[in-house]
Amino acid sequence: MIAWWTPGQRRLMFYQHSEKKAADLNGHIFPQPPLVWRVADGQLKIRALTENKRPVATAKLAVAPYWNLSDCGTVCTGSMRRPESASVAAISDWEWGFYESAFTHANVGRLTRHEGGFDGLWSDLTGKRRLFPLETLIVLPQTLAQFVREERN
Questions:
Q1: Is the dihedral of CA 86, 39, 46, 83 positive or negative?
Q2: Which of 33, 70, 94, 139 fits 48 for a cystine, CB–CB 3.0-4.6 Å?
Q3: What are the boundaries of each domain within the chain?
Q4: What are the tens digits of pLDDT across the range 41-73?
Q5: CA end-to-end distance (rounded Å), the chain
């Protein structure tokens, strides 16, 4: 098992959806929230951080506002290229695989507090240079320590 965090950054993202809901989002660069990543047994889980700084064990986490994630943060890896290992050397490959995959479907209900919902959030962020609006994240009772130990509240 390995866990790490990434500060807010801008990343290229790809969207595919059978209903063409996200067609206008495909292939654009978006500001990303700070994230915490966990890989164990070939499975990737992601949560958002509520602050753009290195987290401590008691840091509260938030729903990562992406399609292809379950309510516990597990990534549906459909088209994602997954590294063979959970090692420090593979961290950039896990990140690259996540962002370079096709975001195809919502696995849970509400992903953001943005008044326009998921589509409104990512439409507003298309091509923007500003930081990801952390106030749009849905804060969870889960801490970083619980996420790393795979505990849920």
A1: positive
A2: 33
A3: 2-148
A4: 989 999 999 999 999 999 999 999 998 898 899
A5: 21
Q: How far is the C-alpha of 47 from the C-alpha of 65, rounded, in Å? A: 9
Residue type for position 128: K
What does DSSP assign to residue 72?
A: T
Confidence at residue 77, expressed as pLDDT on a 0 to 100 scale: 83
DSSP annotation string for 97-146: HHHHSEE----SS-----TTHHHHHHHHHTT--SPP-GGGS-EEEEEHHH
- Non-local (6+) Cβ contacts of 85 within 8 A are none
Classify residue 27 as exposed, middle or buried by CB count within 10 Å of its CB (0-12, 13-18, 19+). exposed
β-sheet bridge partners, residue 31: 10
> What does the alpha-carbon distance between residue 38 and residue 114 come to, in Å, rounded to a whole number?
26
Spatial CA neighbour of 50 closest among 29, 38, 65, 40: 65
Which pTM value belongs to this model?
0.91
For 8, 44, 129, the CA distances from 124, given in Å and listed in that order, are 16, 27, 11
Helix (H, G, I), strand (E, B) or coil at 26: coil
Residues 68-89: pLDDT tens digits? 898 899 998 877 888 988 899 9
